[in-house]
């Protein structure tokens, strides 16, 4: 199995990118990016993120920092969570504006 | 019967009598044996009598015979149905007083033997759990959010248990991702939360075997070569001194609730 060979290939490697420091850095970059998306929500979202996430071009720098400090799978995971949350929020808002229908 | 007699009735009204009679004589006895039996049973003189006559007389009588038959039959059928329902209820009912005996059922078997290696590369088996209270958690170090949170909860819980309740517990982290979580990496990861947490890893087959025994669901998602996530149910297992799983706690428990629940279980066991 290729994956079993992977472990034996690097028997004593420590993946520092999931340890506390890197994790915190990733969370910080992630929050900065989502804050940017929130603040720039009046701009037209043109850039494509991971799982159908669209963000304005103004946040490109934050996005780059975010992608650099997190693993690609983590970025995907967080983007998915964000989209889900937004969808739920939209549905809730929709219900309110419709009022007594 | 009804269509035939109706036809006769109709015929007698509208067609010449002779014609309808000859028709009846020709067909009725042979085609419809029942009508013959009726003519016999009514004892009005048998075949020689005018068939027309027989039918007209017979009409109300037959209605009556139906009625006399239907009523007892319906009563009998209803009685039978009621009796059957009563019998069925009695058969299915659980007699009072026997409920305790009947309901005893050993739950699903959770846990079992395993052979893995710890972060110091020593072989560990289920025998190392004997005589200790163990808080077991299945996770992986590459988890983006819930994994670190759960390990943090674990570290806080053992702290609280020791300081508030004076209870000792062996916290164990079993990785579901042994390909990437090598002993060295696992030690470095767990040291950041609490150095007392013991990390177990091992051959992928052995880890899978243990996860199966503890009924842990896990699968790789978002896979891209060596970068992937593992979807799992992030449950804690509280294991008693006899290696039995006492209780299982989901990720909805925070450190306070978990401490409370574990202390309750441990005290109950000590009291009994």
UniProtKB/TrEMBL annotation, chain A:
Checking Pfam families in the record gives: COX6B
Main location per the UniProt record = mitochondrion
Could you tell me the keywords of this UniProt record? Disulfide bond, Mitochondrion
Q: Where in the cell is it found?
A: Mitochondrion
Record-level GO cellular component terms? mitochondrion
Record's superkingdom? Eukaryota
The protein depicted here goes by the name Cytochrome c oxidase assembly factor 6
TrEMBL record, chain B:
One BP annotation, GO: mitochondrial respiratory chain complex IV assembly
Q: Name one Pfam family in it.
A: SCO1-SenC
**What segment(s) does the record annotate as region Disordered?**
28-52
Domain of life of the source: Eukaryota
Q: Give any Gene Ontology cellular component.
A: mitochondrion
Similarity comment: family membership: Belongs to the SCO1/2 family.
Q: What is this protein called?
A: Uncharacterized protein
Lineage in the entry?
A: Eukaryota, Viridiplantae, Streptophyta, Embryophyta, Tracheophyta
